Amino acid sequence: MDFLPELIRATRDELGYGFELLHDGHHRLSPSQAGWMGRRLEPYRMFWLEDPTPEEDQRAFATVRSLTSCPIAVGEVWNSVHDCQHAITERLIDYIRIPVTHGGGLTHLRQILALADVYGVRSGLQGASDISPIGQAANFALDWTIPNFGMQEYMGYPEDTWRVFTPHYRLEGGVITLDGTPGLGVEFDEEAAARYPYEPRSLPVNRLRDGGMYDW
After folding, report:
1. What is the pLDDT of residue 205?
2. Dihedral over Cα of 92, 97, 101, 105: its sign
3. Which residues of 115-127 are buried (b: 16+ CB within 10 A; e: fewer)?
4. Strand partners, 208
5. The dihedral formed by the CA atoms of 108, 104, 83 and 78, expressed in degrees to the nearest 10
6. Strands 72-74, 95-96: parallel, antiparallel or unpaired by DSSP?
7. What's the rounded Cα separation, in Å, for the pair 148 and 25?
8. Integer Cα distance of 151 and 46 in angstroms
9. What's the CA gap between 113 and 88, in Å, rounded?
10. pLDDT tens digit string along 99-133?
11. In 10 A of CB 209, how many CB atoms?
């Protein structure tokens, strides 16, 4: 709570304002703590403060919004319009982070993004490396067609990924381009995939629950 605002301040003092800064809270803060943090970060023109408080309680973001004007981005753990309807229609968030693979596919997520557009909420679809290149390509398909595009996360993949997937999109200079291949533009090698069996793993993320911390 004390370190981050000083880190962001020092970064701006040293490097200026010619680039964007984002911070992920990983759901760790209470609503009042998240509001306090956002208020401390306001002078440094953050692009967004991501997942500052657990998202299951949409109404908690009313507290955050009342305390800070720092842009708020959430949605990685939401799966339907019913999970995010209140946060969107009450203008409690600024960016919606649901990816296609978690949000009911292209059709349902397009409906969510259409609702978000009405209330001035922009897209910021999750693109972490646990979303396959096919899922990323589906994100891109929506990004290119919606009026409220905000930002697309792209984290990259381990080298072994490209033995299974052959994408026809590329990232150059911060811009994703597609070569016109039909469909989503990703080829999938099932024989190669068989050499990499699925291994379930848990994320080392602390979430706030009943006033205490636990691993999820």
Report:
1. 55
2. positive
3. bbbeeebbbbbbb
4. 213
5. -130
6. parallel
7. 24
8. 14
9. 10
10. 999 999 999 999 999 999 999 999 999 999 889 99
11. 12
Q: Which helix (H) or strand (E) holds 34?
A: helix 31-41
Question: Which phi and psi (to 5°) does residue 76 adopt?
Answer: -60, -30
Q: Which of 197, 200, 198, 190 is nearest to 163 (CA)?
A: 190
Give the model confidence (pLDDT) of 147-197 as tens digits. 999 999 998 898 999 999 999 998 888 888 888 888 899 999 999 999 999
- Which residue matches tokens 């910021």? 124
The rounded distance, in Å, linking the Cα atoms of 91 and 62 is 9
Structure tokens at 170: 């590329």
DSSP for residue 121: P
pTM: 0.90
